[in-house]
Amino acid sequence: MRLLSLTGSRLSLLAALTVALPALASAQGIESPRIPLRTALNEINAFRAEYESAYNKHDMAALTSMYAPDAIVITATGEQVVGRAAISKMLAADSAAGTTRFESDTTRVVGHTAWDVGTMSSDKGVARYLVVLRRGLKEWQLASVAVVPE
Fold this sequence. Notes:
It is built from four helices and six strands, in the order αααββαββββ. By secondary structure, it is α+β, with helices and mostly antiparallel strands. The protein starts with a helix and ends with a strand.
């Protein structure tokens, strides 16, 4: 008789978890529905091309809008820049000279988060980058960027 009550309570717990887990996932900011991997990769490739174009045109409004409000950039000198306003100032100074090309080596996507590793090259030299992107309901935004001189 005791075995049956344990099994019954375990089944009740399992049923409760089955109902509660989707609600927990949504409360943690996990968006639904999931986008197909190929779609995500195509969107990220287009995002990178738009970023390069805006960067080379010195379009600070377009560049700044591509960053999340609380984005973090770690520059090649190790300086940490936080928030759109500070990032916009940094980009204005950084993008003023020459043309820069961004080339991805690796892109990984897990749900609505992606990371992209690649090379940026300009007249100033070559650097490696690591970018973390988050996808909202409609578009990707830069959440974190780290640049390392090559």
